[in-house]
């Protein structure tokens, strides 16, 4: 379970399969997330490898922002639109 300082959640709005790995379009619902953090998706863990905001790479995203998130450790076909993702 995530501690308070690392707690965040986001909803998957779209899923894309790129050669570099899966990318999700998401809205950060609560807290903030950072590159390198581990997330829990439907019982599986994945790592955030990149965050993009307005077509620019950023190191962090905060509640209310719409972002693109690159993930490692999961396959795009295992990601479901509408899923709520939380810190691991």
What does this structure look like?
This protein is mainly beta and about 90 residues long. It has a single domain, classed as Elongation Factor Tu (Ef-tu), domain 3. About 0% of the residues lie in helices and about 65% in strands. It has strands at about 10-20, 20-35, 40, 45-55, 55-60, 60, 65-70, 85. It has a 6-stranded antiparallel beta barrel with strand order 1-2-7-4-3-8. The protein is globular, with a radius of gyration of 11 Å. About 25% of the residues are buried.
Write a compact overview of the structure shown.
The protein is mainly beta and 88 residues long. The chain is built from no helices and eight strands.
Percent of residues in beta strands?
over 45%
Structural classification: mainly beta
| Number of strand segments | 8
Count the DSSP helices: 0
Pick out the low-confidence regions: none
Q: What is the subunit arrangement here?
A: single chain
Helix-residue proportion: under 10%
């Amino acid at each position: 379970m995530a501690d308070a300082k690392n707690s965040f959640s986001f909803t998957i709005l779209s899923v894309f399969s790129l050669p570099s790995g899966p990318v999700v379009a998401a809205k950060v619902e609560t807290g903030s997330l950072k590159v390198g953090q581990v997330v829990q998706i439907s019982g599986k863990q994945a790592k955030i490898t990149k965050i993009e905001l307005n077509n620019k790479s950023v190191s962090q995203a905060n509640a209310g922002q719409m972002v693109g998130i690159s993930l490692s450790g999961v396959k795009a076909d295992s990601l479901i639109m509408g899923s709520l993702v939380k810190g691991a």
